[in-house]
TrEMBL record:
The chain crosses the membrane at residues 63-86, 98-119, 125-142, 220-242. It is a multi-pass membrane protein. Belongs to the binding-protein-dependent transport system permease family. This is NitT/TauT family transport system permease protein. It is found in: Cell membrane. The lineage of its organism: Bacteria, Bacillati, Actinomycetota, Actinomycetes, Streptosporangiales.
Length: 258
């Protein structure tokens, strides 16, 4: 089943690349604006061993991982607290709904003022962007825990901490990890967007911006964007693999239902 999905996904990707190659080769679009995909992939292969580009990739990954880790450390305990205390949940709901639609990109000017170091600035924006999907998933997961299971445990004399540890958290954990997976993709977009708009010294966004100086090289721009997409694909695949290993019972149940 997985091999079939991978084969279909690869076929779809190759098909899109073939269409873009044909459009460029046929002259339907300006080749300076849309170079042939074979040229783009050749440049992408060259970037894979380019030391300067690898430094840029490392800088973006450092901000991505740091901001995402901070968001997990804050959002999960906060979600557990709000999900376990109905009074706090009700009191904070309006504030959460007010803050979470604010895009991180809109806060770049504020981050520039607050943080002189580009890494801290990027991490702070990633933290803000990742906080909400993880927090919301944690809250909804705890609300959906089977009340009969909790009441059964309480009827045997278990207190709130025991119910939380033995029933609520194991039941909510797969959904929390899904929130982390969603946040990981958002974080990569925020890192590169921040580098493009706010500048700095190193990063994939800085590289993409530099490719457009001195006349611009669209092939280099698309080659850098290709690796940004590959990083997102790899991060998502890694988190799915961790989710399947850590919560094998939930994966089997979901696949059985589907």
């Amino acid at each position: 089943m997985n091999l079939r999905r991978i084969a279909l996904g690869a076929a779809g990707g190759v098909g899109v690349l073939a269409v873009l190659e044909g459009v460029s080769r046929a002259g339907l679009l300006d080749r300076d604006a849309l170079p042939p995909m074979t040229t783009v992939l050749t440049e992408a292969g060259r970037l894979a061993v380019d030391e300067d580009f690898l430094v840029d990739v490392g800088a973006s990954l450092q901000a991505w991982a740091g901001g995402l880790a901070l968001a997990v450390l804050v959002a999960v305990p906060l979600g557990v607290l709000l999900g376990s205390v109905p009074l706090l949940d009700t009191a904070s709901r309006a504030l959460v709904e007010l803050l979470r639609p604010i895009p991180s990109v809109a806060l770049i000017p504020l981050a520039i003022i607050l943080f002189a170091d580009p890494l801290q600035m990027k991490m702070s924006l990633v933290f803000y962007a990742c906080l909400w999907p993880i927090l919301i998933n944690t809250l909804y997961a705890l609300r959906d825990v089977d009340p009969l299971a909790k009441e059964t445990l309480r009827s045997f004399g278990f207190g709130t901490p025991s119910v939380l540890w033995r029933v609520s958290l194991p039941s909510a954990a797969p959904f929390i990890v899904t929130g982390v997976r969603i946040a990981a993709s958002v974080a990569l977009v925020v890192v590169i967007s921040t580098e493009l708009f706010a500048g700095g010294w190193d990063g994939i966004g800085i590289y993409l911006s530099d490719t457009q100086s001195g006349g611009g090289r669209t092939d280099l721009l698309l080659a850098g964007a290709f690796w940004a997409g590959m990083l997102g694909l790899l991060a998502n695949g890694l988190l799915i693999a961790i989710e399947r290993i850590a919560f094998r019972w939930n994966t089997a149940r979901v696949e059985g239902v589907s």
